[in-house]
Amino acid sequence: MTIAPGERVAILGRSGAGKSTLLNYIYGCCRPDAALVPQAASLVGALSVFHNVFMGQLERHSTLFNLRTLLCPGTREKEDIGRILDLLGLREKMFDPAGSLSGGQQQRTSIARAIYNARPIIVGDEPVSALDRLQGESLLCCLKERARTLVLAMHDVPLALAHSTRIVMLHAGRVALDVPSSGVRAADLAMYYDVGAR
């Protein structure tokens, strides 16, 4: 399986088909050019939204700078992260503990961290699963604007078709279908979600 720069790939399949395993492998192959949005938000609940997003660039700064930012965030970092949080509707939560957020807000914080990471590739494992359809649409548009290449495992077939250039369907750990999203309909994919699908 080859993914070209600029592609937006949606990986679909039933639970247990191997989506997360494939994504983790892709992410491992693409580092350090990729940022990850994990299935679980993987936030530090006691730290603020700001600090959880700032972690996206920890490795780019010295330990001293990171400690200073933990204690007293700089104006530039607050402005840069604030702009991203504005896009995701989280500006007012910037200094709230991440553990106090709803599931959808935590997921948006995880997406903000990946955007702040500023890598050309974003790999996401169900990045909008905790959001309603409207929020999911908005967040996927934001990801498309901020990353050159997207590889996303998704459970929402209509969203996947609307926001990808390519559909990869997994079944029993194998690629069962790999087609441009423009040439497939949701009904064409239904058989892969049937219990008896082969």
Protein described:
The protein is α/β, with parallel strands linked by helices. The radius of gyration is 17 Å and the shape is elongated. The protein starts with 7 loop residues before the first strand and ends in a 9-residue tail after the last helix. The longest helix is centred in the middle third of the chain and has 15 residues, at 103-117. It is 40% helix and 16% strand. Strands 2-3-4-1-5-6 form a 6-stranded mixed sheet, with helices on both faces. It has 2 domains: 1-33 and 120-198, P-loop containing nucleotide triphosphate hydrolases (Rossmann fold); 44-118, no CATH class.
Q: Largest beta sheet: what is the strand line-up?
A: 2-3-4-1-5-6
Which CATH class of the largest domain is shown? Alpha Beta
User: Quick check: average pLDDT?
Assistant: 90
Count of folded domains: 2
- Poorly predicted tracts of residues: none
Q: The biggest beta sheet, please? A: 6 strands, mixed
Walk me through the topology:
Layout: E1 8-12, H1 19-30, E2 34-37, H2 49-54, H3 63-71, H4 75-87, H5 103-117, E3 121-125, H6 133-146, E4 149-153, H7 157-163, E5 166-171, E6 174-180, H8 186-189
Parallel strand pairs: 1-4, 1-5, 2-3, 3-4
Antiparallel strand pairs: 5-6
In short:
This protein has 198 residues and is α/β, with parallel strands linked by helices. Helix content is 40%, strand content 16%.
